[in-house]
Design a protein that fits this description.
- The complex is a heterodimer of chains A (316) and B (87).
- With 316 residues, chain A is of the alpha+beta class.
- The longest helix of chain A has 12 residues.
- Chain A is globular.
- Helices cover 24% and strands 24% of the residues of chain B.
- Chain B has 3 helices and 4 strands, in the order H-E-H-E-H-E-E.
- Chain B is α+β, with helices and mostly antiparallel strands and 87 residues long.
- Chain B has a 3-stranded antiparallel sheet with strand order 1-3-4.
- Classes of the chains: A alpha+beta (316), B alpha+beta (87).
- At the A-B interface, strand 1, strand 2, helix 1, strand 5 and strand 8 of A face helix 2, strand 2, helix 3, strand 3 and strand 4 of B.
- Strand 5 of chain A pairs antiparallel with strand 2 of chain B.
């Protein structure tokens, strides 16, 4: 699981039996108490925007009551926020649809034209199931005692050292072209880009990683490699085209991630602000052909201020 | 396990927690993803000099307890703080 805190927004992504929505009341009380930010409007909250989403669970009965079914989650969110809309995306007869709750933007908080940075906001998420066994095996370390990590950094603990090893051996630190290649030109172009990686290998299996790119973007990976319900997720707000100076697009990123896990099925969501994002339309077109996969669903939603692309693929 | 001196470092690691975690009983991969934009961008934040990143680490730990997560490690960068969590 991961939490990303920016100055004006946060992203919380949690797996297992976590109780994500139970933090809402305390979170809004905290920002009021510490920052003096109040978003109360009558009995509900009205921040600028809220997104809540999840793929359907594999074992919903094991979740805490609030997260056992989507309608309960929506009711909870509706009691808390104004102007929420919920979407069930994908086929109802399939056990791998995706759910989204999103509020209308609170225009009262938009006092000026947004910065270019906000206008270019985009988020890519790939949710993969049925990982190829030899790929899933890369995220199984067994009992840590049986595999002492080799580290030259004594201050680091085994879980982080082994996590970093996995990140490197699976090339998950190379998802984005941040330069660092062999050519002088590439090194010249990439001199201002940095990567800060924080990975953890769970014992006996499982893996989480946060990578900060250029001090301002992130991508995160979570893997549960167990046979029978193997799963991996990749989420990123890194603008591939921008940071690679045109050398890489989102399709290239998608192929890199798929090659790491080789899932039997995956769904992909891509959010982009609808004002000027060329990458959205490029991705809509380019994703028609992902090698070795057959496209099952392609759905586009025109949401308040955002475009959403949802795609689902199965291995050939 | 959270101490102020450790937090002065840009990277925080809870070694005690990281060595005690066991994922044997984990089963559900698919995540719940919550994203809250309090303001549309940094420039729209009220001019108090405080932002979400001004909230003390200990407060985030308390919020995450409600979610049933603990902080394994944290990386602070120019524009965001990234927390790696248990579960």
């Amino acid at each position: 699981s991961s939490l990303f805190v920016f100055d004006h927004k946060l992203t919380l992504k949690t797996c297992g039996t976590t109780t994500t929505l139970f933090c809402l009341e305390a979170l809004f009380a905290l920002v009021k108490q510490v920052l003096g930010w109040s978003f109360e409007n009558g009995l509900k909250m009205n921040p600028y925007k809220v997104f809540y989403s999840r793929r359907c669970f594999m074992f919903p009965a094991k979740q805490s009551w609030i997260h056992r079914n989507w309608n309960d989650e929506v009711n909870f969110l509706d009691r808390f926020f104004w102007h929420g809309k919920n979407y069930l995306v994908g086929r109802l007869d399939q056990a791998n649809h995706w759910n989204l709750y999103v509020t209308d933007s609170n225009q009262d908080l938009k006092t000026r034209e947004l910065s270019d940075e906000t206008d270019e906001d985009e988020t890519l998420e790939i949710l993969m199931t049925g990982l190829k066994p030899n790929k899933a095996q890369q995220f199984v370390i067994g009992n840590r005692e049986d595999r002492p990590p080799q580290s030259e950094e004594p201050e680091k603990d085994p879980g982080h050292v082994l996590g970093a090893e996995i990140t490197r051996t699976t090339k998950l630190d190379r998802v984005y072209d941040c330069g660092g290649g062999d050519s002088d030109q590439q090194q010249q172009q990439s001199r201002n880009l940095s990567l800060r990686e924080d990975s953890f290998a769970f014992s006996p299996c499982g893996y989480s990683s946060n990578v900060i790119v250029d001090g301002q973007y992130y991508y995160t990976l979570h893997v549960t490699p167990e046979d029978g319900w193997s799963y991996a997720s990749f989420e990123s707000n890194v603008p591939a085209n921008l940071i690679s100076q045109g050398r890489q697009d989102q399709v290239n990123v998608i192929r890199h991630v798929l090659d790491t896990f080789q899932p039997s099925e995956f769904c992909l969501t891509f959010f982009a602000r609808d004002t000027a994002n060329e990458n959205f339309y490029k991705l809509v077109k380019l994703c028609d052909n992902i090698p070795n996969y057959v496209k099952k669903d392609k759905i586009i939603y025109d949401l308040d201020e955002y475009q959403l692309l949802y795609l689902r693929f199965s291995a050939r | 396990t959270v101490s102020a001196p450790e937090m002065q470092s840009p990277t925080y690691i809870d070694r005690e927690l990281s060595q005690s975690l066991n994922s044997t009983d984990s089963f559900e991969g698919p995540e719940k993803l919550l994203e809250i934009w309090f303001y549309p961008d940094v420039e729209s934040i009220p001019n108090s000099g405080k932002t979400l990143r001004s909230i003390p680490f200990e407060n985030w730990v308390e919020i995450l307890q409600l979610v049933k997560c603990q902080v394994l490690s944290m990386n602070r960068s120019e524009k965001l703080d990234a927390y790696l969590l248990s579960e």
